[in-house]
């Protein structure tokens, strides 16, 4: 019976693949495997990986240092930040498909490239950066929570969608300077159940990292609640801020 069921599943999978062939996550052209990119989109991606600053993950060029000058001068609140790729046209396309096009399968694609960058242990727990309830109601889902769920399956790590909550609705941060962003997100987050956080390694999950104001605000309340360490893992990060004004 098990062998027969397996044959049926394989047959069904073949039929689906034949009728609906895998598509490039960026442009939609036919590719060989799910959750990947065509050669043209692949060449348009700048991968971040694990080669940048050991703390903030920013690219380090023409230097033998392991940390950037900013992290050496002032160690960041978040112990380790990693992103799969730089925020560019391909990353933006995928993010828009998920957030506004409701293509929830994009979360699995993002998790595919994020999971190799995760550091975890027995005390690790995934925590998506939360949305305010009003924005969650209007959108219908939290894109970071979808990514975290896919990562939890891949990594075998616990995920908690309510570990940190957004208790105050903030204005859109786009167009704000770093000081204004920090002021806007101040006191916007809270940890409702400190016992879930105490002594745990928290891996914050987000789709795009811009200035870091939101993730830093989340990390502050988590550390205050007793977290032993907070890391950040995201799909894409803004390395060139000018790209946001397109």
Which labels suit this protein?
246 residues; 5-stranded parallel sheet; single chain; 9 helices; two-stranded antiparallel sheet
Q: What's the shape?
A: globular
Q: What about the largest sheet? A: 5 strands, parallel
- Provide the CATH topology of the largest domain: Rossmann fold
What number is the mean pLDDT?
84
Number of self-contained structural domains: 2
Structural class: alpha/beta
Q: Please identify, by name, the CATH architecture of the largest domain.
A: 3-Layer(aba) Sandwich
Order of strands in the sheet with the most strands? 1-7-6-2-3
First-residue to last-residue Cα separation: 57 Å
Radius of gyration: 19 Å
Tell me the helix content: 25-40%
CATH top level label of the largest domain: Alpha Beta
Number of helices: 9
- Give the beta-strand count: 7
- Taken in chain order, the helices and strands follow as HHHEHHEHHEEHEEHE
């Amino acid at each position: 019976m098990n062998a027969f069921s397996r044959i049926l599943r394989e047959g069904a999978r073949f039929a689906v693949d034949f009728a609906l062939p895998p598509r490039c996550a960026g442009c939609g052209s036919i590719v060989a495997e799910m959750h990947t990119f065509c050669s043209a989109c692949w060449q348009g991606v700048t991968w971040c990986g694990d080669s940048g600053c050991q703390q903030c993950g920013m690219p380090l060029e023409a230097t033998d240092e392991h940390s950037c000058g900013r992290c050496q001068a002032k160690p960041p609140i978040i112990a380790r930040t990693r992103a799969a790729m730089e925020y560019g046209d391909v990353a933006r396309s995928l993010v828009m498909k998920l957030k506004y096009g409701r293509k929830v399968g994009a979360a699995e694609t993002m998790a595919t490239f994020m999971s190799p960058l995760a550091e975890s242990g027995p005390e690790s727990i995934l925590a998506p950066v939360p949305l305010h309830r009003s924005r969650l109601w209007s959108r219908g889902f939290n894109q970071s929570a979808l990514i975290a769920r896919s990562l939890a399956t891949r990594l075998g790590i616990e995920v908690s969608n309510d570990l940190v909550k957004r208790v105050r609705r903030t204005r859109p941060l786009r167009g704000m300077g770093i000081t204004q962003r920090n002021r806007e997100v101040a006191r916007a987050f809270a940890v409702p159940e400190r016992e879930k956080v105490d002594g745990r390694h928290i891996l914050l999950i987000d789709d795009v990292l811009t200035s870091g104001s939101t993730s830093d605000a989340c990390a502050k309340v988590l550390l205050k609640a007793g977290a032993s360490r907070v890391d950040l893992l995201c799909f894409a990060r803004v390395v060139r801020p000018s790209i946001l004004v397109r």
